[in-house]
Fold this sequence. Notes:
Elements: E1 3-5, H1 13-28, H2 31-41, H3 60-78, H4 156-163, H5 181-186, H6 199-207, H7 221-239, H8 275-278, E2 285-287
Parallel strand pairs: 1-2
Amino acid sequence: MTYVRKNAGTLTGAERRRFVKALLEVKRRGEYDEFVRMHIAYFSPDGEHKRRTAHMAPSFLPWHRRFLLDLERALRRVDSSVTVPYWDWTRDRTTTSAPWTADLLGGNGRRSDHQVMTGPFAYQKGHWTIKESVTDAAFLTRDFGRPRAPIDLPTKSDLEWALKDPVYDVSPWDSTVTRGFRNKLEGWSTGRGSTSWRNHNRVHRWVGGAMLGAASVNDPVFWLHHAFIDLQWQRWQRRHRGARYLPAKPPRPADAQHNRMVARHEKLPPWDVTPDELEDVSGIYRYA
């Protein structure tokens, strides 16, 4: 039986409380920090000479889809009524709208050190200590809009720019491609300043603080953001009927991308699943 992922802005008070309670319990059990460690381990940029799976590669979307499913299963082991909500940043664009309410994710960080002081994930509440990170900070940080070098959230037209591309991805299958839905959604660009971040990447930059870099999972908004990204993959599939994950076959040995990315029928590390098997999840969940 399928379950439903809802817009964070439409959750009832009870649904918000159940989601937060389940997330805090997964953290208390030590499972949450395993997710942080995994994302750090599989965040391999173009410059590293090893296989890219989580980012800067075609598998960006199926990798995070499976990652979300694993977290969701952990939450549902705590409370079977809980699903991961999504944050529609094309609609909820203010610093006080969903999901930044005191009963969901809390708000922005304070000016001095960007520490989040409100909501259930504030360090002072004692339930959300950062243990796995690339910095020494033990508290959750945010810097909405990056006031010192202002950046805005992506707009509906920014998202449409990605959705209308009929091809999933193109060679060389990395952060440099200028065509293809995957990178237009993931958001790597050759521009300068704020224009160098599109869609997915731009949202990480807008939230700032812990959402910057490989340890971004430390901010619970990571999951709400990626649920919305996952929804865009579904919308793209519905718009471009028959369009599939690419590449269908691995690059040849002479290709510089040989063994550096995952083709449609190859196993997606660290799981025993292929991108092909993750293209249709209609039997697991749907979006409201």
